[in-house]
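Researcher: Quick test of sequence recovery. Tokens follow.
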């Protein structure tokens, strides 16, 4: 008998029929004698639809009310899934995040889980029920409802698995596991049998939506056995673990891309000590995360520099830069959108010179110009114009020997949701 956490994403519970299929899967585990805690996302496009609806009433809705609204999506899912399990003769009980004892910091829309008190979960498991918990939500000490950021149900699942010391946390989604790149973009993407926490964390942070970055962080920190697999097939999936077996000669494990990028450039800045500290200090004070920073050459005592922020922060970042003009004189601030950050990731990179050069070569041979670059021990990222991103990803996938011979069956419906 094992204690298992299963997490089902939005597409896995997007219709009544899919909900029934999930209920059957849970019942199979119960019949095999396992104790099961299930985390569920909102059905299909519910979260997006709720956001669209709110924007029609208020383009800038209060974050507290937004969390109040979005948490309803997961609440619908848990109640319906519990009913579907009862309908096939098993007992189940649904909990909101707060009923499951999930406490978060007092931040709306991207709260971190601070602690979990799983007493009610254990009591329900002991009573023989499957426990169905709403993903992506928690409550602050003051009793306010919070959400964990888009895709945050993965994090609920891993945090619960750590808190109840589950034997395994299975993330069920609409593809067969973690692939060398998004299998919906590159048809000959390769499914990975295993991947290390560090590589997965890098891929997730760099845009691979298959796992929420914070879920991987928790899994690494608490050493949770994590498996990503399809809710539509019985295939084995991908194991995410501390050390993953390295295939001979594979230096790049995967390619990620992120369209949520805007570039801000500040031109003609006085080149004197403390300028960068003032600019990035002001951005940080306004809660804006800055990613890649590039300073170009100095001419006549003036410098230009650029940095990237998420698309949502584009306008705000420009306003902040304008607000400090009195303190940091410059000629002009501009912004650019329609960009993508493409990244190659692999733990083997550190001991293999020439990996970055090959990336630049592939991109330049496609006639695409690289606007910004950033590197770390296990990744290289390039910001390029969005139009040719598919060609670039495919070119890199082939160049680093990641293509499979056959086109893949990704395990889920091609018509997403
Ligand atoms: P869920 O609703 O189950 O949480 P998500 O849409 O959040 O599902 O994540 C699954 C999707 O992640 C896949 O459909 C796929 O398009 C995308 N994806 C991006 N990169 C990868 C990758 N490297 N491996 C697998 N899937 C990926
Ligand atoms: N429903 C939330 C979202 O769409 C959380 C999740 O699916 O993990 O982002
Ligand atoms: Mg997800």
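Model:
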């Amino acid at each position: 008998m094992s204690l298992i956490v299963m997490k089902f994403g939005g597409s896995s519970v997007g219709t009544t029929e899919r909900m029934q299929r999930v209920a059957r899967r849970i019942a199979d585990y119960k019949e095999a004698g396992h104790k099961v805690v299930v985390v569920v996302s909102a059905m299909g496009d519910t979260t997006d639809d709720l956001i669209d609806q709110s924007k029609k009433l208020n383009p800038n809705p209060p974050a507290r009310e937004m969390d109040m609204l979005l948490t309803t999506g997961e609440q619908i899912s848990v109640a319906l899934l519990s009913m579907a399990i009862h309908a096939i003769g098993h007992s189940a009980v649904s909990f909101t995040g707060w009923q499951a004892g999930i406490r978060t910091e007092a931040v709306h829309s991207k709260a971190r889980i601070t602690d979990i008190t799983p007493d009610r979960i254990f009591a329900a498991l002991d009573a023989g029920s499957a426990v169905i918990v709403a993903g992506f939500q928690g409550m602050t000490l003051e009793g306010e409802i919070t959400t964990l950021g888009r895709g945050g149900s993965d994090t609920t699942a891993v945090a619960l698995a750590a808190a109840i010391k589950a034997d395994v946390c299975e993330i069920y989604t609409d593809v067969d596991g973690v692939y060398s790149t998004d299998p919906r973009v590159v048809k000959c993407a390769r499914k990975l049998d295993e991947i290390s926490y560090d590589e997965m964390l890098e891929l997730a942070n760099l845009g691979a939506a298959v796992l929420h970055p914070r879920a991987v962080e928790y899994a690494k920190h608490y050493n949770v056995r994590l498996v990503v697999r399809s809710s539509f097939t019985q295939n084995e999936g991908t194991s995410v673990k501390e050390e993953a077996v390295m295939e001979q000669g594979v230096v790049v494990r995967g390619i990620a891309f992120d369209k949520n990028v805007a570039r801000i450039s500040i031109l003609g800045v006085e080149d004197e000590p403390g300028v960068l500290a003032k600019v990035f200090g002001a951005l940080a004070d306004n809660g804006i995360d800055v990613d890649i920073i590039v300073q170009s050459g100095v001419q006549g005592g003036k410098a230009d520099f650029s940095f990237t922020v998420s698309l949502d922060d584009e306008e705000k970042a420009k306003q902040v830069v304008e607000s400090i003009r009195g303190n940091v004189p410059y000629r002009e601030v501009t912004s650019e959108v329609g960009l993508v950050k493409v990244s190659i990731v692999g733990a083997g990179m550190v001991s293999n010179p020439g990996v970055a050069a090959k990336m630049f070569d592939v991109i330049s041979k496609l006639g695409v110009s690289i606007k910004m670059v950033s590197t770390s021990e296990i990744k290289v990222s390039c910001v390029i114009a969005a139009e040719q991103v598919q060609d670039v990803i495919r070119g890199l996938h082939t160049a680093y020997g990641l293509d499979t011979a056959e086109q893949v069956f990704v395990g889920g419906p091609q018509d997403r949701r």
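The chain has a mean pLDDT of 94.
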